[in-house]
Amino acid sequence: MTIGSGESVERAGRIDTAAVTALGDRVIGPEYKALPPTAWGMTVNEFLATAPYLDQLQTPVLTLDRGALTANTAVLADWADTAGVRLAPHGKTTMAPQLWAEQLAAGAWAITVATGWQAQVARSYGVNRIVLANAFIDPVGLRWAAREAALDPDFELFSWVDSVETVAAMERGLTDAPDGVRLAVLVELGGPHGRTGARGVDAALAVAEAVERSDRLRLAGVGGYEGVFAHDRAAESLGAVHDYLSQMVRLHRALADRYEGRAIVSAGGSAFPDLVVEHLAELADEQGTRGVPTTVVLRSGAYIVHDDGFYAGISPLATRLRSAMHAWARVLSHPEPGLALLDAGKRDAPFDEGLPVPQRVSGGSVPEGAHISALADQHSFLRLNSGSVAVGDTVRLGLSHPCTAMDKWRLIPVIDDADAARPRIVDFVHTVF
């Protein structure tokens, strides 16, 4: 049994919708931040049946906007389809099976993950096609993957290799795999001062040769991540991304007659999907009319939540996407002129790609020049150049970087409209971190 045979690339990926729906039967308790004690003992569905409003929850709280989630999902699904590439959203951004289900229902080809454990989470919810965009050498994880492949011929898993040593480590981990099980791997191309990935096309070709000699692995394509080479859209940064993607094309063409079965060419975060399409979309040839059947896979993950910070500034689709996430915090203290302390801190909101930005105060506008200058573990420092806020006011914060927002919350309320005078809770999203 070959894991990742790639013989059915035309269909969208699948998830066990019954398992996802069952999340609504989980019982609420004090382990879920911001949920009121009056909800403890109820299931999520029972609490939703009370038609709660956001102001019935405690602060701080992270929310997702239902309209933005739906619109963002449609935007990238349509954009990828028009570009002729497949979408395998990076599931590690949200680690939320409910959101994965929405992305798959919109036509996503697979779900991407970064670790073996994340792949196991996705598989536990019935995801049938997984891109593990990383080296996969953990022996426990490899034994699990081999068992899954032996049990389910429809299960497809694609992982990455970037060195001969990686190939050898995978072979050791698969020593006891059931007869006939072979793991599909993409040769990962990196670059100088990058992250993982073979350093150059020649090094990547040597890795491919090692895969070809293996009876436990199958050469299935080329993978990489261009976002590590640039962090903005300055001309020099874009040039670095262009150069890297050109090398990916070169590597794929060099391996075109050596793949076993269909080929996968995969790149793309949420910052430069336009450049990925510019370089790689021309390789897409799922019917094999020009040679080896080839599927180009874009792995953007942040788009479904988007943000009011890093991705709002760098995404080529920023004018079509809108942030679905906000934090709501209460003014705890106004100890001196020009300073107020909020009850949300590093435990509640992301700060690695920019500090939160105050957007509204108790339904009104924020004082001109108001900004967050720092976060402590449980406090935000709100600086006021003019005007004032009162102890007890609620501040809505715009956030940057969904990857480090979602992981701080196990149960996230979904509201009907973050701009409403009194947002209503219409759902909850469970995360698995």
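^ that was protein a. below is b, sequence first then the tokens
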Amino acid sequence: MIPVRVTALLQRLRPPAPVAPGIIDLALRSRALADRMIGALDRIERDEEDPDRLAQLFELDQLATRMRRYDENLLTLAGAEPGPPRRADTSLVDVLRAGQSEVEQYDRIDVETVDDELAVAAVAVHDVVRLVAELLDNATVFSEKGSRVTVTARREGADALVTIADSGAGIPAGDLPGLNRLLVDPAATADRLGLVVVARLAGRHGIRVLLRRDEGTVAEVLLPAGLLTRAPEATWLTGDLPTPRYVPKAPDAPLDEQVRTVLAGRIDHETDGDLAIRAGSAVVYVRVKQSPPLVEVFSPVLTAIEPTEPLYARLGELTHRMQIGRLYHAEDTVWASVPVFGRNLQAAHLLLAVQVMTGLADELDDRLHEEFGGKRYGDREG
């Protein structure tokens, strides 16, 4: 019998099956359309006040996000890279939350204990996000409706072990041996394409994935030491950001009250119900949406800019690299946006999103201004 590690290596070296001409180009075009759809939905969501209609818009947003993920899965099955890798390492907890955001039933997923010193190397971030998203999607689809899915991560020697567990009936135990063989040596079968994608992504980086039974189904993802780096010191504690000392006034404190507590001392002014924060030339807004519970951190990047096909393509490319945020065009302006989950709000995540956005807005306005013209948002009052 060939050892598992050797089999995984052979899988990485094995060339993909021939792909019909135009399939890759079609998947890239479809992904670009999904990016445009997500941007349009962002614009509509921004102006919507009715909570029921907003919930429906979020459902459409999730469908568009899944469409984009399926396009990227098609590129993986075709043996193509979905896009350039990230430029920077990313903390493991942010990688897991990015995977959570790609799943339709994201509100059933709890990211619990995660070693906050662990980070994923930039070259593997996007693939690990997609791998985790596929496993989380399986966990929500094949477990009992309404049950919880938990995610934990810890060190395993020099490696890191990510565990995804559901508490429902899950996959029958008799199916697990065949599924685990598929995860080591995938064959594209119509009813298991999600796991084939997981196997392909894992094979690229020497990641080991194992399914087993406990109270429900458990997926174990072993990230090898070569993919791991040390997470930067808590970046939300640097500069002028205060040390997070968030304690809700009551267990059921309203989300907007929790957000105000976290951002105390940083709010510059309010406009249309949004909390405005100034940082250098950037203006960052924080908006609370109660249904579903979500906090949006966003900033105008470039104004007086026409929506063109090259602009949409560029925004889609940059969004693809961001992982935890997106760029879109609305009201003659390019916006950058980062969502923060409102359910079990974490102060550190909100403060980090604010800091990421302030740096992002300053970096992107120069880059996009050189390519497409328009006006830098910080120059409007000058």
